[in-house]
Each structure stands twice: as structure tokens, then as C-alpha cells.
Amino acid sequence: MTNTRGKHRFDIVLELEAPIETCYEVCYREEHMAHWVPLHKSVVYDQSGAQTPYGPGASRLITQTRGNTLREHIVQTNKPQSMVYAIYTFGKPMDWLVHNYQGHIQFEPISADRTRLTWSIHYDLRGPGKPLAPLLKAAFKKLIGGMCRTIQNTSLRFPDTATLPATKPPVICCWLARFARKLCLWQKIPNKTII
């Protein structure tokens, strides 16, 4: 994966009722991510490649309840203003459709206890993903938008509460994953992960 920005892009912008430092913590610490990442079993950091905790070079493994594991890499941080991460693998079938995925998360203080969150997504499509471009963009927007709203409505108000409501992916994401799996089987794509 390269660190260039992908051809496809969208932004989610919203305001959070918390200081910038709290917003940054909620978006990168695994104990907080557990409250807003949908359908996850675990969020685990590997800090061995990073000079500082949660800094560039750290990796995140997000294991989903359906068995897929997302492998993310922290590319850049400027605490508490911004973070850039790249997803190296989504697991099948998304690896057959999407590559060069980067998320750019920026925080801008509006006041002492309000922060503007801008989450920009950049990605490229490959092979069978190209004809699905509008569906994939809609699914990513709905998924990232839902996570942002969960951060906005829940995690920032109760960052230390272990009993926050679980998040669910939008129906379009589940449907798209099933459709992508069938499309890849129909096109006889080899049963291996493309990285």
C-alpha cells in the first residue's frame, strides 16, 4: 500500500460537545474505540513499530464478530489535532474491491468544550469494485457517518462507561458484503487475500 491519497474521497464533518483532547482520546484509544466500532470482538494495538504510544508505526487489529480482521497502520499523528491511518487489509471480500484506503481525522477547537471533527476518507477501487463505486461510497459514508454519530452521541458523554450500547453496521454494508462475495465467486477470483 502506498501513502498517496486514493482517487475516491468523501468527508464527514460534525461538532462534538467535548474538549479537543477528549475527542482525540476517544478516537484512538482501544478502550474507547470499543464503544463506537461496529461489530467488533476486539481492538488491539501493536506498539512495537512506534516511537511513542499510539504514534506513527503503531498497528491496530480490529477483529470483527464475523471473523474478519482489519489491519490498520497509524501513518501520522499530531496530538490532539490530527491522525492519519491506513487500512492494509479489510479481510475478504473487501480486499478484492478496495485498496489504498486512508482515513484522515482532524480536530479543530471551536471553544473550550466544543470540537469540530472532520473525518476524510480516501481510497481506490480494484477489479470487481469499480462497477460498485457508487454503492461502496454510500456504504463507507453510512458506516463512517454512523461511527461519527455514535462518537458524538455516546462516547464523549460517557467515555469511562463500560456498558455503552453496541453499534450495528448499516444494512447496506451487510448487503454489500454478501453481494461482493457472490460477485467475486462469479468472476472466479482466486481464494486469496489481495494486499
Give an account of the 3D structure:
This protein has 195 residues and is of the alpha+beta class. It has a single domain (8-186), classed as 2-Layer Sandwich (Alpha-D-Glucose-1,6-Bisphosphate, Chain A, domain 4). 29% of the residues lie in helices and 34% in strands. The chain is built from 5 helices and 7 strands; from the N terminus they run E-H-H-E-E-E-E-H-E-E-H-H. It has helices spanning 20-28, 30-33, 94-97, 133-155, 171-186, and strands at residues 8-16, 40-46, 59-64, 69-78, 82-89, 98-111, 114-125. The chain has a 7-stranded antiparallel beta sheet with strand order 1-7-6-5-4-3-2. Strand 4 and strand 5 form a beta hairpin. It is globular, with a radius of gyration of 17 Å. Residues 161-172 and 184-195 have low confidence and may be disordered.
Q: What order do the helices and strands come in, and which of them pair?
A:
Elements: E1 8-16, H1 20-28, H2 30-33, E2 40-46, E3 59-64, E4 69-78, E5 82-89, H3 94-97, E6 98-111, E7 114-125, H4 133-155, H5 171-186
Antiparallel strand pairs: 1-7, 2-3, 3-4, 4-5, 5-6, 6-7
Instruction: Describe the main β-sheet briefly.
Output: 7 strands, antiparallel
Pairing-aware structural class of the strands and helices? alpha+beta
**Outline:** globular
What is the domain total for the residues? 1
Q: In the CATH classification, which architecture applies?
A: 2-Layer Sandwich
What is the CATH homology-level superfamily? START domain
Question: Span between N and C termini?
Answer: 7 Å
Secondary structure tally: strands? 7
Quaternary? single chain
